[in-house]
């Protein structure tokens, strides 16, 4: 079971780019990397998923190096509303375990 | 689409009482997941179903917990008897996919349980 390690918390300011890195040294060949966002009193919400290199959608980008032992979620030009907990998940059927996540706080 | 629907949103009960939480997954989704979230332990996967069949219940804390999925549109998580340490937010999620990659999980708004 691939385990993930993320920073417990991060701070940034409105308009900045925020990068959250997740380590997953034991990632398996078939594992995908998925990021979720959770606001207080809500369920987690899917942000982005990738397998290798770079994936971009309207919300974020996901950078995955060639060895796939880590990944970086990039949030461009954050706003106050991006304050949330961000979770990195690795795997598939057995990789549905959420860690403690990264509590991102955006300040004015 | 209405999304994943959970009920009740909030429940307060006394120790020893039976608690039943309900979930309606998104129509057409093949997989359903029950999670529990607390400050101490974060989000824990309790059990998941694929095509109404329980696949992995290793996260179910003990025999007091049971989950069923009698059809593709309904699942229950039951705690009997309930204990104060069961107090948590219980989330249900569903996914179109199954197997090696579950793809995107869609979560409900959760059921906040308080056991006194």
What does this structure look like?
The complex is a heterodimer of chains A (108) and B (116). In chain A, strands 1-9-8-3-4 form a 5-stranded mixed sheet, with no helix packed on it. In chain A, strands 2-7-6-5 form a 4-stranded antiparallel sheet, with no helix packed on it. Chain A has 108 residues and is mainly β. Chain A has no helices and 9 strands. The N and C termini of chain A lie far apart (39 Å). Chain A is globular, with a radius of gyration of 13 Å. The mean pLDDT of chain A is 91. Helices cover 0% and strands 53% of the residues of chain B. Chain B has no helices and 11 strands. In chain B, strands 2, 4, 5, 6, 9, 10 and 11 form a 7-stranded mixed sheet that branches. A 4-stranded antiparallel sheet of chain B has the order 1-3-8-7, with no helix packed on it. At the A-B interface, strand 3 and strand 4 of A face strand 5 and strand 10 of B.
Features:
heterodimer, A: 108 residues, mainly beta, four-stranded antiparallel sheet, B: 116 residues, seven-stranded mixed sheet, 0% helix
Quick take:
The complex is a heterodimer of chains A (108) and B (116). Chain A has 108 residues and is mainly beta. Helix content of chain A is 0%, strand content 48%.
